[in-house]
Amino acid sequence: MDNKIFDMENARAQMRKSLLEYCILLAISQGELYASDILSELKADNLIVVEGTLYPMLSRLKSDSLLEYSWKESKAGPPRKYYRLTGEGKRTLEQLTLTWQELTSSINSLIKKYEKNN
Amino acid sequence: MKKTINISIGGLSFQIEEEAYATLEKYLSEVKARFASYPDAGEIVSDMEDRIAEQFSAKAQTGRPISPAMVQELISVMGRPDQIGEAGKNDSAPNQEAVPKAPGMPKRLFRNLDDAILGGVCSGLAVYLGTDTAWVRLIFALTIFFGGFGIVLYLILWIIVPAAETDTEKLQMRGSPINLKNLEQTVRDRVAEIKKKDPSTVKRALAAPFKALGLFFRGLGRVLQSLLPVLFKIIGVGITVVAAMAMAGLVFAAVSLLTNSGSPYVDFPLKEIASGAVYYAAVASAFFVAFVPIVFILLLGTSLVAYRSTFKRMGSFMLLGLWVVAVAVFLNMAVKLAPQVEDLVKTSPYFQTASKEYALRDFSALEIGGVDEAVIHPGSSFKVVAEARQKDLDETRIFVQNGTLKVGHERLFKICLFCTRGKVKLSIYAPSFDRISASGASRVTSRGKNPPNGSRTFRCFQAVSFRHSR
Predict the structure, then answer these.
(1) Using 50, 70 and 90 to split pLDDT, how confident is the model at A91?
(2) Which of A23, B245, B358, B449 could be B384's S-S partner, Cβ–Cβ 3.0 to 4.6 Å?
(3) How far off is chain B from A64, nearest CA to CA, in Å?
(4) What is the CATH number of domain A8-117?
(5) In a domain, B309, yes or no
(6) How many domains does chain B have?
(7) Conformational region of residue B352, where left means phi above 0, alpha means psi within -120 to 50, and beta covers everything else
């Protein structure tokens, strides 16, 4: 079944998912954010479908010591966890950005060829 | 009218309809199970709860309780457990730890209560070994005809192997990875099991006595299990004390043997057999041959008291090695010394039987103790003959005091650890015996016409003293 029909929805989800960590790092690079800020940032750019996906990723980025957090008071309710990049996180983000730029340029040139031929 | 419940989530409190609460609770427990294998599972879930609280508080401002529709909406925003995180084909990171384990999770031995006749030991073993339960049961049943060690083994396993009670333990028992899918599967299996469980009446009748027996033993097992720690502690204290005392005695013995083998504590002519290095090697090796097992017994005792193993693997191996070396040395020494010991026992006047006549008279009573034996011959003239090993004869004191013949041992008032005391056989002739007193393990036999009822044997517990009528 899976082999016969190309699962478009799954392919898009996979594409988004593999970029999501990069996007989270990018979002947090602006400054200290708490989970809901990150979510609204990602949702605005239509990068995340279900919110629950964020949490295990945050947990992992933290255990890989790319992120760290501190508790801050909030006017609206209980204290919140504010995330920021660690030095390691900043370096990783630079590497990933470089990779992304290389990828986009090569993919863009592929797309141009494709458009020319059609 | 709808019932509402007050709940606290993410540090905020909400009113929620009962139905909505049930849905939310189910969702959260599924999420928890989804992340069960993650190192930060608790943190992930509590962060998600914070987010849920935030969304609720944004919507529940009107003062109305949270409705099932709101919970459904929340779930679609947050994502169903199978949509969240690493679900799907391309599982990514946090499963780093869980993924390699998944194909061959190590099985754990549990008692399988879902398929049990008594305690589920056989069925648990079968799951563990990956065979059919019937075979394991058959093997256990067959051991009844070969001494029944299977019964003992069964009881031991019943006590020490835990039962698979929770769904997680049931998955561990089968070596299946613990994830939501498998947990759901066990729940489904259980429901199916309950529905299916309607065996034929014949089968039920056959199983009934076993079931009853099982119920009885299960109750007994539970009682034993609660008593066991206490029992272990008592036994453990006993073993520890005895082992410690044995250790102290052994150390004392070894020291006295090594420092001064001719001391009053030892009466065997050890120095005549061996000297120098051979002697010390023999004593030291004998010491360790006895000492190491006592150390293990002591550890067993303390383990029982502490209710956990106090054995250390490294230490145990080292002690075992020491013991093996000591046994080897000891055997070597024994082979070397055996002919000399034999020779000594054969030739030394020390160990030869001798007899001695004592010129004692004018007594009409007998006092005897220790392990000595006396044969009295009333109605004859005075004569005392003693027969024993030379060494024992030398140490025996026979004398008359106030008309009483006393047989004593000079060692009685000395401390001697390694002294052997041989039996002294006495033949005592006298006109009459008014009083006979035999204490300890001594024995007096009367031969002659004079005492009542002819020949009699007196032991300490039978007749400590007897007055014989003329």
Answers:
(1) very high
(2) B358
(3) 10
(4) 1.10.10.10
(5) yes
(6) 4
(7) beta
- Of the three residues B82, B101, B120, the one that is the final residue of a domain is B101
Between A59, A78, A81, which is nearest B40 by CB?
A59
Q: What does the pLDDT look like over B3-35, one tens digit per residue? A: 888 888 887 888 888 888 888 988 988 888 888
Q: Smallest Cβ distance to A52: which of B84, B92, B93?
A: B84
Instruction: Say if the Cβ atoms of A50 and B88 lie within 8 Å.
Output: no
Parent domain of B257: 235-347
Convert the pLDDT of each residue in B356-379 to its tens digit. Answer: 888 888 888 888 877 778 888 877
Cβ-in-10-Å burial (0-12, 13-18, 19+) of B374 comes to buried
pLDDT digits (tens, 9 = 90+) for B181-219: 676 677 667 666 665 555 566 666 766 777 777 778 778
Domain ranges of chain A: 8-117
Nearest to B85 among A36, A53, A77 (CB): A53
CB contact under 8 A, B79 and A52: yes
Q: Provide the pLDDT for residue B61.
A: 62
Residue where one domain finishes, among candidates B327, B347, B367: B347
- Chain segment B250-276, per-residue pLDDT in tens: 888 888 777 765 555 555 666 666 666
- Residue A32: partners with Cβ closer than 8 Å, 6 or more residues away: A70, A72, A82, A83, A84
